[in-house]
Amino acid sequence: MVRLTAEYIERKYSQMQLNKSLSKKVKKDQLHILTHLRMNNMFISSIGNFVNYKNLKHNAISKIENLNFLEKLQTLYLGYNKILIVEGLECLKNLTVLQIENQKLSFGESLCFDPRSILTLSTCLKVLNISGNKITSLKGIKELRKLEVLDATNNFINDIDDLTESISVLISLTDLSLQGNPVTQYYRYKENLIANNDTIKSFDGKMISDVCRCFMKRFKIKKHLHHTKKSLTTALDEDITSSLNLPPALKESISRAIFQHPDSKFPTTISTTINKTESYLFPLWKTGSNILQNGHIAPRPFWGNIIKARNSRSMRPLLNNEAIKLPPI
């Protein structure tokens, strides 16, 4: 099997020239002006780099097809064509490198992936270049569990949660490039991706150390615990205040007092006109008792100076006619 490289082309070109004329010398500068190559029946198994052959005209392939018999093909370059769907690769069980960057797509189109081809490539593909293809999500390649190098630069990826989910399941990924995507403007997007992937060693051209990875994972755990604690506190606040049949403003005041003074609570009684008595927790300043904080007596709220009623004060909710008796201030 033959690997098509620049050196191989030069060698074949020299042989062709010698067959035509034994006296004519081959000039390598002539090779750089080539515009077309015909390589049929050369038993080519993979294609190398042609950076120096800048005058070669690219194809205008719009559909990947007729590759079913290339079962031993290892490298496939399809960049700079008009391919919209990565398909027709179901039989390429040994393909390890796929370059399909910078497709010339119409407005509103983006490169997408046929699940059947992705299923086959999931067992073999190690290098994938899909840069410059207006891609908005990497969900289509989540099954590529053997993938080690992914170049997805200059696309339209902008959802950090979707990206994190897709990258976290690429368990063999070591080299990731995402420059030129809107998602790179997301706050701490690199830290977020590193914390959710255990294998990435190079990210946007920079090496990731084990110390950095451990720090990101600890940060992720602490952030998760903080959000969990905050949600539990909010739920408890709502449970306590919703159980009281009080106007919204008073509920808010009671809730704020409970959570700002967790140690300054005592049971008090709220009675209604229908002879229904329930016990709730109120802060000590509601009864006029002094609050001791750090060895000092905390001042009572300013509304404690309001003229005190001789007996208990009553309130009437807006939605019913129940009167609520509160202890004297």
Automatic annotation (TrEMBL):
Repeat as UniProt keyword: yes
CDD domains: PPP1R42
Keywords per UniProt: Leucine-rich repeat, Repeat
Annotated PROSITE patterns: LRR (PS51450)
Pfam family, one: LRR_4
PANTHER family: LEUCINE-RICH REPEAT AND IQ DOMAIN-CONTAINING PROTEIN 1-RELATED (PTHR46652), LEUCINE-RICH REPEAT-CONTAINING PROTEIN 9 (PTHR46652:SF3)
Protein name, as recorded: Protein phosphatase 1 regulatory subunit 42
Organism of derivation: Eufriesea mexicana
Species classification: Eukaryota, Metazoa, Ecdysozoa, Arthropoda, Hexapoda
